[in-house]
Write a structure and sequence with these properties.
Blueprint: H1 15-27, H2 34-47, E1 51-55, H3 58-68, E2 76-80, H4 85-93, E3 97-101, H5 112-118, E4 123-126, H6 138-148, E5 151-155, E6 163-164, E7 167-168, E8 174-178, E9 191-195, H7 198-207, H8 216-221, H9 241-272, E10 278-280, E11 288-289, E12 295-299, H10 301-304, H11 308-317, H12 333-339, H13 347-353, E13 356-359, H14 367-380
Helix pairs in contact: 1-9, 2-9, 3-4, 3-7, 9-14
The structure holds pyridoxal-5'-phosphate (PLP).
């Protein structure tokens, strides 16, 4: 057994990154300013996005979108229940109604067919999730959104560097990325709102900073009136230059990070072959490039004779950390009590919600670490 604990995830911060943050701290300008501007431009270059705005989180980006689209009572938003709780919380907080689309059982991607079944005359927005670092099937999803006059916003929290067919995620439509420390690149906390819609980006820029047309840095550098005008009530979701300095350093390394993740994931696949209680995810059938945000397995609970939670606990006793992405949102206490979704409505979501487990995967992990995880899994399962 390992004698030190292997966490499920760990950010990789370089000395250069630390130095860049320190320089920003010493520069006299630490909130939204030149570093944030540079980070936004480099992010557009990397993803191919037409416009981007750096924010305090991905959740902030989704909140701003809801405001820009005026989502409220009477509106329905379609998203999978197999997602992080943030989107669904925002739908409910806006007074709108979440409608959950089921996922593919083996890729965890929300399917175009499942989304289509959820569409009503009240549907306003669809939020597909690119799960674990592979892309959702965007072409049919886009066609359906156009046909039904719906707005589409891609949750790309797992998809930094993901390619769908020949397009990089972020290069088309409206996409929101997260830089929380467990994601493929981090700014401590942060997010990026990307879109090819010029009117939308102007609105997001305004809404992210009190509804003023300009931020403090614009006023300082462009000699604008120090007392800017509120054009509409807005929020306070701007990214700091301290965070952007780290983001710039991480962005330079994202391809190397993802390549290392891919190598480790391939080793997991090899070593887990033949462990019958462990069911890996399948790759989508369309052409794509994986960002390997997560390495997810499903436990065959009948064969293993234990629950997924027991399995995770046993791994922890063997010094292996794991993650859970995700417990279905509709099975969380509040949503169980308020929505009461019947058992046969989201079969693939529920099947996976009881069985999924994310194994440790981060760029500074070694092949030895991967072997330790697989040895511990075999030990737990008495193989
Ligand atoms: C992390 C995550 C988010 C939220 O990102 P924040 O930056 O923490 O707000 C949203 N959706 C998914 C699928 C995520 O994994």
């Amino acid at each position: 057994m390992r004698n030190s604990f292997l966490p499920f995830s760990k950010p990789v911060i370089s000395e250069d990154g630390i130095q860049s943050v320190v320089e920003t701290l010493r520069s006299g300008w630490i909130t939204t300013g030149p570093k944030t501007g540079a980070f936004e431009s480099k992010f557009c270059e990397y993803t191919g996005a037409a416009h981007s705005v750096a924010l305090s989180s991905a959740t902030a980006g989704m909140h701003l979108l809801f405001k820009a689209l005026d989502i409220g009572p009477g509106d329905e938003v379609v998203t999978p229940s197999m997602t992080w709780v943030s989107t669904v919380n925002l739908i409910v907080l806006a007074g709108a109604t979440p409608v959950f689309a089921d996922i593919d059982k083996d890729t965890l991607m929300v399917t175009p067919e499942a989304i289509e079944r959820c569409i009503t005359t009240k549907t306003k927005l669809v939020v597909p999730v690119h799960f674990a670092g592979a892309p959702a099937d965007m072409q049919p999803i886009r066609q359906m959104a156009v046909k039904n006059g719906l707005f589409l916003a891609e949750d790309a929290a797992h998809a930094m560097g993901t390619v769908y067919k020949s397009e990089k995620i972020g290069s088309k439509g409206t996409t929101i990325f997260s830089f929380h420390p467990i994601k493929n690149m981090t700014t401590g906390e942060g997010g990026m709102f990307c879109t090819d819609d010029l009117d939308l980006i102007e609105r997001i820029k305004r809404l992210k900073f009190h509804g003023l047309g300009v931020d403090a840095y614009d006023r300082d550098t462009q000699g604008r009136s120090p007392q800017a005008e509120v054009l509409e009530p807005g929020y306070k979701y701007n990214m700091t230059d301290i965070a952007a300095a780290l983001g710039l350093s991480q962005l330079e390394r994202i391809d190397a990070f993802n390549e290392k993740r891919r190598k480790l994931a391939m080793l997991y696949r090899d070593l887990l072959e033949g462990v019958d209680e462990v069911i890996p995810l399948s790759d989508p059938v369309y052409n794509f490039k994986h960002a390997w945000h997560l390495f997810i397995i499903r436990l065959d609970i009948d064969r293993a004779g234990m629950t997924r939670d027991e399995f995770m606990h046993e791994l922890k006793l063997r010094n292996i950390g794991t993650g859970l992405h995700f417990r279905a949102v509709h099975q969380q206490k509040y949503y169980q009590e308020t929505m009461n979704i019947k058992p046969d409505v989201l079969p693939n979501t529920e099947w996976n919600s009881d069985r999924i487990c994310s194994l440790p995967l981060f760029p500074s992990m070694t092949e030895e670490d991967v072997r330790d995880v697989v040895d511990a899994i075999k030990d737990v399962l008495n193989e």
